[in-house]
C-alpha cells in the first residue's frame, strides 16, 4: 500500500492536518482573544480543511478520469467507485460518532435531537451544523460531493453515449455554476451579524461548499491536460499561491473586512481565493522528491490524518476544556495540557488507524475492485 502513495500528496495532507491541529492548540492558551496572530492561526485551521477539500477533489477526480480512460463508465463501475469511497470514509466516521455519543452519556449530557441526521449526513445540508461532533460538517460536504457529481457524470455517459474526458470537464463546470445559484440566494436572503454566523451558516454548509471539492476535480483535469506547463512553472505557481493568500489576508486585516460588513466578499470571493491558493500548491508539491527523514514523518501524519481530524477536537480538546479552567492556569500548566492534547490525539489516532482503519482498507483493496 505504501508503494502506491504519492509523496507530494502525503506532504499536502500532512500540511492540512497540521494546520487544523495547530489552530486547535491555541484554544488551550486562549479561549477568547482579539490577538491578530492567534486569530490568523485559527484561520489557518479553516484553510487546512479547504486544503483537504481540494486534495479530495484532486484524488477523486483523478480516479474518475482513470475510469474514463480505461472504459469503466457503466453504472456498475460507479457502484464499485462508491463502495471503495464508503469503505474509506464511513467506518471511521461512524466509529467516532459512536464514541462522541458514548462520551455524552458518560458525562450525563443530553443527546442532540438532531442526532439521527448524522447518519445520512443531513445535519448541515442546508442549515448550520449542530454543536455536536463538529468535525462532521466537512464529512457531509465530501460525502455529497462524492455522490452527486459522479452520478451525474455517469448518467451523462449513459445518455450521450460518450466517454470522453471533456464530458468530465463540462459536467464539473455545470455543477460549479449550478451551485453558485445557492450562494446568490444566501447572499440576498441572509443577515449576518458576525464571522461565526457566516462560518456556521455558509462556510460549513453542504450546498454552499461542495464546489470546493469540484475545484479539485478541475485541478486534476487541468494538471493532466497541461502537465508540461505545470512542471516547468511549479515555482511560479507556489509563488502566486503565497502572494495571493498572504495579500488577501493583509487586505482583510488592513481594511477590517468582516462578513457582517462585506458579506459579498466573503460569499463570492474569499473562499474561492483560498481554494485557488490551495490548488496552486499542487504543481510544486507533486514534484517533490522524498526526504529520508521527513518522508517518514509525512507518511505517518498522512496515513493517520483522517483519524487525527476526527478525534482531536470533539473527543480530546473539548474533554480537556471541560476538566480544566484554562483561563486560571499558568502558562507552564497550559503547556503541559498542550503536550497532553498532542499525545492523546496521536495515540488515539494511531490505535484507530492500526486496529480499525487499516484492516478495513486491506479488506477493501482485496475484495472490492479498482
From TrEMBL:
The keyword Electron transport does not apply. The keyword RNA-binding does not apply. Keywords: Acyltransferase, Membrane, Transferase, Transmembrane, Transmembrane helix. The chain crosses the membrane at residues 12-31, 43-65, 86-107, 144-160, 167-186, 206-224, 236-257, 263-285, 297-316, 336-356. GO terms for molecular function: acyltransferase activity. It comes from the Bacteria. Residues 7-347 form the Acyltransferase domain. It holds the Pfam family Acyl_transf_3. This is Acyltransferase.
